[in-house]
Amino acid sequence: MSIPIAVTDRVFVLTGAGISAESGLPTFRASDGLWAGYNVEEVCTPEALRRNPALVWEFYAKRRADCQKAAPNLAHFALAELEARLPGRFFLCTQNVDDLHERAGSHNLVHMHGELAKSRCERECGRPPVEDHVIYANLDQVPRCPCGGRLRPHIVFFGEIPLEMPRIEREIAECTLMLVVGTSGSVYPAANFVHWARQAGARTVYIGPEAPLNAGAFTHIVEGKAGEVLPGLFTVA
Ligand code: NAD
User: pTM value?
Assistant: First the structure.
């Protein structure tokens, strides 16, 4: 199968945990609501951060370490190459908190659910997130913000508002082709993006080994692993 991209097309790509699966980073649907063996309620919510910040940091320190050991796969590289062929007409929105898209060479991207390699003040004092690659061994090692608040992972927890939504909404309204890769269609608002794109008249393509929960909203479904399907999938006019 080949997906033609015309000179008039604007491409919006949404990626989820599935695109990093072939890099060895576990998805979370794969294990029944557990993410890498942890119950997400206990590590990915604002309540968890208040109740047990040590456990939240333990979880994200492990994710940081895993991410540092992982390398981008063929799917990440295929999207970076597509961006290079579509200057000014390509936008990537990832739900992933790893940095494998950047390391593959993607530039025009947003991390709507935050980034593992950054931390910010847990008091939301207004200071911007800072780069943070440290694998903290315990809570005592986690630094404080100049305001006195402890740093927290720069991650959008369940129940928090995703980042960059106005820009994402603008890009969806303008796209003519939406590609969605490796996401189960169960986390909102990302699961709604395909509906917004369809309403705006775009073609919508899903790529992954199984149909997502919102499969009915796609004009095409390409079944397969992202790293096997994405390279060579596009014909750019
Ligand atoms: P999910 O875990 O709910 O679903 C993963 C999807 O990927 C499934 O539909 C599965 O069929 C598909 N998949 C599995 N292997 C694949 C492959 N080789 N190629 C293509 N698709 C494949 O993931 P989600 O919908 O992204 O939601 C999980 C949330 O958890 C996200 O919002 C994300 O922030 C977070 N998360 C991030 C990472 C990461 O940064 N790498 C990893 C796990 C979870």
Answer: 0.96
